[in-house]
């Protein structure tokens, strides 16, 4: 009994990790030293013998604050959602908690979209509407002005465009990639896609003005993510090979090249709770579940929301909403701090400190999934033991 009991308590607390509402969500100690595998081959995408390979002989190393999210990122949106404005900023130095505020440099805007003014600077709208493939899913293509249809050239998203449940588009920079190739600047990517760089930088800031209204046109039975909007970041290598592959060798996601979910509804029960989650191996083997912050920001289904995510120099990543946010070409360091601090003062801060990991002990996909099964089996055996104990005691 004394052995079994603590395990049961641990299991129970996993199941009932209740969370509540906050103004600001934060990861600290974000970034670790590790590796991932890049895709080296994408073969016969449209045939049944479609296959991919990852380059396990030459792992890509990353290290330091925010890694691997210090690499280039693409920005992704799922409906129901209307995107009014988007901006990406960099700063020479910014540490949210630094005591010497003079070392914090102002933010300079490097990309901007406005739906109402039809401005798209350093912004390319892409969507998975290209060639279909058995192992890769649909290829990236230019998005038409509705965000989701195929276009033959780059278009600006229409003012007030609503995408529905399950519908997605993505934003990349307007800097074209070199040709596909393992040693080229964007690595290997899918043939004939419009291939653009993601947004670079260890220290970066993404801001959004958006609406997430309740779903009103698609029925619950017809959507796999009914009324579950999201805004998230991917290592931009992922969508250029395959965002939703059937084989994990078709993307660097499985080996941990990086995903950051900024604002995400996780299920159809809690449709007003926006969660922040990272998916990599910084102290976990379970990349599917990822590492969430145990708290949420409220989704306002009837009004416009403004906010985003900040990655600072010291591995602090902060997700926030604030009506004070604006999209000026330059943002004073002190203004950004005051937007965030105002929300912390009024609605609280939830922090998750990530564990320090020196190197990836194991980023191999088959290993980590078998670990998963192993853990599940042990829990099952434990439960059976408990059942016997209760019945025969
Ligand atoms: C940097 O982050 C670490 C770990 O989260 C924290 O302990 C430290 O106080 C931070 N340092 C500064 C200067 O913000
Ligand atoms: C995925 O692709 C790899 C490399 O081509 C192959 O070895 C593996 O068997 C494939 N896995 C599945 C589940 O198809
Ligand atoms: C930031 O911008 C403000 C004006 O908007 C200026 O007064 C200040 O000197 C700038 N700070 C830095 C570090 O450039
Ligand atoms: C965009 O939509 C807003 C709100 O509906 C409207 O006020 C604005 O005039 C529109 N802009 C353009 C360029 O149509
Ligand atoms: C990319 O966007 C910037 C900012 O709007 C613009 O100056 C530049 O000409 C664009 N480059 C291309 C290749 O479209
Ligand atoms: C556009 O974004 C890319 C990727 O972060 C960056 O390298 C480039 O400098 C930006 N262009 C402009 C004009 O700011
Ligand atoms: C689901 O979609 C199908 C095909 O578009 C449509 O015919 C059907 O009416 C939809 N079902 C509901 C419950 O809306
Ligand atoms: C919905 O997701 C939240 C956050 O993970 C969780 O607390 C809640 O239990 C989930 N609800 C259901 C019914 O799965
Ligand atoms: C959106 O749906 C939620 C859950 O059903 C509900 O509580 C909320 O009032 C709805 N929002 C609007 C604007 O109707
Ligand atoms: C942006 O917000 C800051 C402070 O919140 C303010 O000082 C600045 O004037 C605003 N800029 C614009 C263009 O509204």
From TrEMBL:
Signal peptide: 1-20
One Gene Ontology cellular component: fungal-type cell wall
Keyword Transcription regulation applies: no
EC number: 3.2.1.39
Enzymatic class: hydrolase
Segments forming domain Cell wall protein YJL171C/Tos1 N-terminal: 25-90
Keyword Hydrolase among record annotations: yes
Coiled coil: none
GO terms assigned for molecular function: glucan endo-1,3-beta-D-glucosidase activity
Family annotation (InterPro entries): YJL171C/Tos1_C, YJL171C/Tos1_N
Recorded catalytic activity of this chain's protein: Hydrolysis of (1->3)-beta-D-glucosidic linkages in (1->3)-beta-D-glucans
Pfam families linked to this entry: YJL171C_Tos1_C, YJL171C_Tos1_N
Entry similarity comment: Belongs to the PGA52 family.
Name by which UniProt lists this protein: glucan endo-1,3-beta-D-glucosidase
Gene source species: Ascoidea rubescens DSM 1968
Upper classification of the organism: Eukaryota, Fungi, Dikarya, Ascomycota, Saccharomycotina
